[in-house]
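Support request from a user on the community tier.

User writes: "When I paste my structure tokens into the form, the page sometimes reloads and wipes my input. The last time it worked, I copied everything first. Here is what I submitted, just in case something in the input itself triggers the reload:"
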């Protein structure tokens, strides 16, 4: 019995001292806010946590202006015009459809409606009612239903299935209105995951996307979820899918970063050891993503997605300077993995940013040594 008490005491001591020892080994010390020895992210021009935009991964000024106008006036016409002028084959249309659908879904969540009160997101209903043949409105509506299913229902329940089946029908309607647009099919990839499409049916859907946009990064990320171990594939299948996408990526394509997303999707639930993030499989995936970022166009809409995930892995791997080099490009927007998986994306991002700043300064870095 005495031995058992000793072992329990050692275990508790390990939990208390473990994080402290890890921080000391990394050269990073936690201090109270306002401490003169504390690293201040504001010294690098980073925004305060409450100023971070959680709606999108990176800047899209046209989208921001239209979103603000639509939500302020509840008039959909500016959204319709923006999507009509956005090329169908590129990543930006997919992101804008997601943003409009997400805005309507969040409005509905905040204002579900009631006696004498109209529900939030009414502008999307009016859009669909007044212009049922508008391809942009149809695509946003399909994405809205998908987001509603994941946000308000539990996978496997009748409620979830009913909403997802409605979303599948909406995807078909949107696809008929814009035959060359891959977005409705990309939206259906999430339906396929939720409704557990058989692999043959999923691959048939995937071929439709490849016919329209073979190098679409957003589509590959959506498909990767289906092939993951926690859904309908395995770790090996997901890794093979990601590595094949990276191998056939055109020059300058961010598809070379796909293996890093596959690694992220299969991270162990609990891992406090930084050496895991310095392992060969993680290091190889990080280097692939860094290469992709370096080779990509500066205006690639998916660039911010890769940079955000790199910050996560670089901080975990204690590669402080490299993490800081990514932060200077993305700070201000946090609507991307991994932050969006938490209840407070801005707070989660701010923690990693603070760790990067502290680690950078603990190893001799300063605002003057950081290139922008």
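"...and here is what came back when it finally went through:"
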């Amino acid at each position: 019995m005495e031995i058992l008490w000793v072992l329990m005491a050692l275990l508790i001591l390990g939990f208390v001292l473990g994080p402290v020892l890890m921080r000391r080994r990394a050269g990073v010390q936690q201090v109270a806010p306002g401490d003169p020895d504390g690293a201040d992210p504001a010294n690098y021009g980073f925004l305060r946590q409450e100023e971070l935009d959680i709606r999108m991964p990176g800047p899209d000024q046209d989208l921001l202006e239209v979103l603000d106008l639509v939500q302020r006036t509840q008039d959909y016409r500016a959204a319709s015009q923006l999507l009509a002028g956005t090329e169908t084959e590129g990543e930006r249309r997919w992101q804008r459809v997601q943003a409009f659908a997400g805005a309507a879904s969040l409005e509905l969540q905040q204002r579900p409606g009631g006696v004498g009160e109209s529900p939030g997101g009414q502008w999307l209903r009016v859009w669909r009612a007044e212009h049922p043949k508008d391809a942009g409105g149809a695509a946003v509506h399909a994405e809205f239903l998908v987001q509603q299913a994941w946000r308000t229902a539990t996978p496997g329940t009748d409620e979830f299935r009913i909403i997802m089946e409605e979303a599948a029908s909406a995807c078909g309607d949107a696809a008929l209105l814009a035959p060359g647009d891959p977005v409705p099919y990309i939206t259906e990839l999430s339906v396929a995951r939720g409704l557990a499409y058989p692999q043959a049916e999923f691959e048939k859907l995937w071929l439709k996307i490849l016919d329209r946009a073979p190098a679409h990064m957003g589509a590959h990320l959506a498909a990767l979820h289906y092939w993951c171990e926690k859904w309908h594939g395995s770790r090996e299948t997901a890794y093979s899918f990601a590595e094949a996408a990276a191998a056939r990526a055109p020059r300058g394509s961010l598809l070379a970063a796909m293996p890093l997303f596959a690694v992220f999707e299969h991270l162990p639930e609990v891992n406090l050891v930084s050496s895991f993030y310095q392992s060969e499989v993680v290091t190889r995936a990080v280097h692939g993503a860094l290469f992709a970022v370096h080779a990509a166009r500066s205006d690639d809409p998916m660039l911010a997605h890769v940079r955000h995930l790199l910050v996560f892995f670089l901080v975990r791997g204690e590669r402080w300077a490299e993490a800081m080099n990514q932060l200077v490009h993305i700070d201000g927007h946090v609507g991307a993995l991994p932050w969006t998986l938490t209840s407070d994306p801005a707070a989660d991002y701010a923690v990693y940013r603070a760790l990067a700043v502290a680690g950078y300064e603990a190893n001799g870095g300063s605002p003057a040594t950081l290139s922008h």
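Agent notes: The reload is a front-end session timeout and is unrelated to the input. Confidence is low (pLDDT under 50) at residues 1-37. The chain is about 60% helix and 0% strand. Escalated to web team.
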